[in-house]
Predict the structure.
Amino acid sequence: MVREDYERFPSFWDDPHLRKWNLWGYVDESHVAQSVRLGLDADIGGAESFIIAAADTVMQRPSRELMSEVFPGVPVADHVSGTDTLLSIEKARRVLGYSPDFTWRELL
């Protein structure tokens, strides 16, 4: 996403079904740039796959609340709180040192 796209986020807030297709996730251009830099410098061999995403969702409502409404009965990882991402970026954090510090909330 480019930062101008964040202006659309409020249009998702009333209907969580609009963005359920990716569990309300997003990725900022700064996150992508950081992951590429880290990947090029990483001391890893062969091919690795990583999910690169923001640490939060596009929504204002808590992630657990969204999951309960849209995907009732689907378990949520214990570490998820507030508006934490539901996409697992833990491998990128652990292996690459990925740290998606920027959030759209700084702009809106």
User: Anything to note?
Assistant: Residues 3-106 form one domain.
